[in-house]
Amino acid sequence: MDFSFTSEQDQLRDTVARLVRQQYDFETRRKVAKSEAGWRPEMWAQFAELGLLGASFSEEEGGFGGGPIEAMIISEEFGKGLVVEPYLQAVIVGGNFLRLGGSAAQREEHIAGLVGGEAIFAFAYSEPKSRFDLNDVSTIAKKDGAGYTLNGHKAVVIGAPFATHLFVTARTSGAQRDKAGITVFLVPKDAKGITTRDYPTVDGLRASEVLFENVSVGADTVVGEVDNGLPLIEKVVDYAIAALCAEACGCFKILNEATITYAKQRKQFGRPIADFQVLQHRMVDMFMAAEQAISMTYMVTLKLDEADKARKLAASGAKVQIGKAGRLISQDAVQIHGGMGMTDELNVGHFFKRVTMIESQFGNTDWHLRRYTELSNG
Amino acid sequence: MNLDFAPEDVAFRQEVRTWLENDYPTELRGKFSRDEYSKEDFLLWQRTLFSRGWGAPAWPKQYGGTGWTATQRYIFQEECARAETLPIPPFGMNMLAPVLMAFASDEQKAHYLPRILNGTDFWCQGYSEPGAGSDLASLKTKAERVGDHYIINGQKTWTTLGHFADWIFVLCRTDPAARKPQEGISFILVDMKTPGVEVRPIITMDGGHEVNETWFTDVKVPVANLVGKENEGWTYAKYLLAHERTGIAGVARSKKGIERLREIASVELDQGQPIIRNPDFAKKISELEIDLSALEYTELRTLARESSGKGPGPESSILKIKGTEIQQRITELTLEAVGVYGAPYFRGFPQEGDNQLPIGPDYAHMAAPLYSNMRKTSIYGGSNEIQHNIIAKMVLGL
């Protein structure tokens, strides 16, 4: 057993941490999130230049020799800066779809673009009525000659406004909630028949509603197996959950540091409020929650390539722990900051909102608790 | 002991309900649930109530109040919540007015109370300062006596709806030589139009503008605007805070909130079924409802004690703590219920035309901002930590 990082991994962390510190200070982030574009394409280019976009893929896969641990490091550091660029969607989701399900031709065509920053992916899977269920798919892909015709509505597709391509889940057979009959397609966002409505999200990201109206795609756009896309989707989403947990750990770190610093500085009744035992214990609880979250994040990151059941248990377990920790830490951070914690001016509220959204991204605490329970008893 | 409503109370409920159905101003309908309102909206609602003779449910008759029993007040609140009326801003009605009735001069009472009652003046509160929150007595804003005037300098913060207000009641330090922080404080009424008063917005994390900073630079106020005695303001301030806490439980609004939550949970799907049928989720709503029930009967007991002549005691801290926890939990569960459509955010960004793709159900749009916004409730009105201290000290004698 070994929880240490290699010197390359330490170096990677330093690189990302420096970038966030120097170019992702809170004021800059706030401006970017409120700007019309909602991101900085030049920042994305810089990620590419620094090798971050290829850092979590092996050299054979077209990356720079890393894997999930590198993704964890980058995500955690991005979490500390509330990075708005779509690393999770484009690199973790997009990259892993290509890596785990892409044909040789698809990998050939897209991985270099992903690593170089030209190809940006978003994941169009949730639907207005699907909630968190990956198998609840009513978008239809109908066989049409050699290819398919897509029709449907995808909801809250994070990062879609910045994307060049969409990974789309669609039903090629079966009923809306069947586990079988789902297929993944990789579709250029500018394909004829796709319309989007872009909007900001509560936590400063951007998303779109995506409508598919008779979108014709070739058979070569299928990623993985026809009708048997769900196992691939679940695996990719578990990779994304691991990265999301790491991002949350970055947020927790900042929230806890900010809270402790504030409690030591803020004086009431003639002494720092950090002197009050009732607040000390709360900050200890916040600290413990963050530590447990880091532990679960390591655990899931190291189990991503285990057999399906072990991987799913790890991902759901981590997501539950992170969800609970997030509620506790974000709520208490605001509470201990008092009125200041409520303001748009201070970073705490922005971390609060991101942590709140992470709780429901890729399934909320209840959803994963149920999945965990079903897996462990089934 | 008896939990039944008397026949006259049942009739009263019907009377209120019918009146709200017919006479609640059309232009105000739906504004509360959309969280959009102006100063004029609040004043219109107050004037409407006033013209019916219901302008001040909690005031004694001699000041133009309804003279209602605690039960009637409770019924009235419940019906207003049910009809989703705008709330009545508490600053003039529930915070300042009891202080004026107890401590102000007859001239002051005769001047200010009717103007609160008939919807002329909008009040705000000048208590907290950047360095004086939980420790309110450490406030620094000072009022210097010069002839017939006070000259006020300093800064107040978290001034809720200060950008609407015509008047502000301000706690000021009038005796810099006082030995204890609680001494040498005075309670002064200030016209917001006085030169030197400046209101600067504070935008909260949900994107809304409710609170402000209020700055005082050489603000000249007639000595006649002092309430009670100079340097005795701390007594009045505490009296006000005890009254603030009773209204803060928000039982009726929380009942409505749970009802809305149930409605949303009956249409939001989870694994293809309404999420209300998910036993885990349904159980959470039940727990919340039971907590609310406990709070409701605790409030009724408090009200009964009040109507027997005793003012609100330190027990009102229970109402504040439990009431705000419930309000927060409702918004948390509502956000949970709406699922992925909790994420889109509209405030401050241009809404586009109707021919665009819809972005989820309307009820989902405010779920996350409300969840964020309601975190304030365990901070304001004396943080919940301070309320615990009050109970520990004043009730348990620890």
Entry summary:
Chain A has 378 residues and is α+β, with helices and mostly antiparallel strands.
Features:
heterodimer, A: 378 residues, alpha+beta, Butyryl-Coa Dehydrogenase, subunit A, domain 1, Butyryl-CoA Dehydrogenase, subunit A, domain 2, Butyryl-CoA Dehydrogenase, subunit A, domain 3, four-stranded mixed β-sheet, four-stranded antiparallel β-sheet, 10 strands, 52% helix, globular, B: 398 residues, 44% helix, 15% strand
Topology:
The complex is a heterodimer of chains A (378) and B (398).
Chain A: H1 7-23, H2 26-34, H3 41-49, H4 68-81, H5 87-101, H6 104-116, E1 121-124, E2 140-144, E3 147-158, E4 165-171, E5 182-188, E6 194-200, E7 206-217, E8 222-223, H7 230-265, E9 267-268, E10 271-272, H8 277-302, H9 308-337, H10 347-360, H11 365-377
Parallel strand pairs in A: 1-4
Antiparallel strand pairs in A: 2-3, 3-7, 4-5, 5-8, 6-7, 9-10
Helix pairs in contact in A: 1-4, 4-7, 5-6, 5-7, 7-8, 7-9, 7-10, 8-9, 9-10, 9-11
Chain B: H1 7-23, H2 31-34, H3 39-52, H4 70-82, H5 90-103, H6 106-117, E1 123-126, E2 142-146, E3 149-156, E4 167-173, E5 185-191, E6 197-203, E7 209-222, E8 226-227, H7 233-247, H8 251-267, E9 269-270, E10 273-274, H9 279-307, H10 316-338, H11 367-373, H12 384-395
Parallel strand pairs in B: 1-4
Antiparallel strand pairs in B: 2-3, 3-7, 4-5, 5-8, 6-7, 9-10
Helix pairs in contact in B: 1-4, 4-8, 5-6, 5-7, 7-10, 8-9, 8-10, 9-10, 10-11, 10-12
